[in-house]
Specification:
By secondary structure, this protein is mainly alpha-helical. The protein contains 11 helices and no strands.
C-alpha cells in the first residue's frame, strides 16, 4: 500500500469516528430532553444508557460537587433510586472489567458500604446474598476493602466470588426493571 493510499485510509477512518461521535452526542442530547414517558419507551439497553447519562449530566451540573469528586461523593448527591442504580451499575461495571477485587481496589471501593443496600433496593437478592456472604465469610472491613483486596492470600476467594457472580442473572436487567418502576425519579 502506497503512502497516499494509507493517508486516504486513515482520513476515512477518522471521518467515520468523527461521524460516530457526532451521532452519539446527538443521541445523548436527545436523552437529556426526554420526559419520563419518553424514557419509558426506550428499549432496555438504551434506557440504561440514557439514565446513566442523565445522572452523570446532573452530577456534573451541580455546583456543590467538586470536579474530582469520587464515587461516594457522587452517589451522596443522588436521590435514593439514583443512588441505588449508580452503586449497582458501578459494581456491575467493575465486575465486568476486573471482578470484585477491582471494585475493592479502585475508587469504587468507597461505595462498598452501600452495595448491600443498593442491591436490596433494586431487587437483586441473589447478588446481595452473594456479596453479603463474601463480606461475612471473609470478615471484610468495608471501610477498608482495599486492604483485603491487596492481600494475595485472598485471590482464590475473589476468583470464587467472580465465578459465582457470573452465574447469576445479569444485574443490568434488574437495574433496568428498577428504573422502569421509578421512571419519574430519573
Amino acid at each position: 500500500m502506497g503512502l497516499i493510499a494509507k493517508i486516504k485510509e486513515l482520513f476515512s477512518a477518522k471521518q467515520y469516528i468523527l461521524r460516530a461521535m457526532e451521532e452519539q452526542d446527538a443521541q445523548y442530547k436527545r436523552y437529556a430532553e426526554l420526559s419520563p414517558a419518553g424514557l419509558s419507551e426506550l428499549a432496555d439497553g438504551e434506557l440504561y444508557s440514557a439514565v446513566l447519562y442523565r445522572m452523570d449530566t446532573a452530577l456534573r451540573a451541580r455546583d456543590d460537587l467538586p470536579k474530582k469528586a469520587g464515587p461516594a461523593e457522587r452517589a451522596a448527591r443522588l436521590n435514593d433510586p439514583g443512588r441505588a442504580v449508580y452503586v449497582a451499575s458501578e459494581l456491575d461495571s467493575e465486575m465486568a472489567e476486573g471482578g470484585l477485587s477491582a471494585f475493592f481496589l479502585d475508587d469504587t471501593r468507597t461505595l462498598a458500604l452501600q452495595v448491600s443496600d443498593s442491591l436490596r433496593e433494586i431487587g437483586a437478592q441473589e447478588h446481595r446474598a452473594l456479596f453479603d456472604a463474601f463480606v461475612l465469610d471473609h470478615q471484610v472491613d468495608l471501610t477498608r476493602p482495599r486492604a483485603f483486596a491487596q492481600d494475595p492470600d485472598n485471590d482464590q476467594a475473589f476468583e470464587t466470588f467472580d465465578r459465582a457472580y457470573q452465574d447469576l442473572p445479569p444485574l443490568e436487567g434488574m437495574v433496568v426493571s428498577y428504573i422502569r418502576q421509578h421512571i419519574t425519579e430519573f
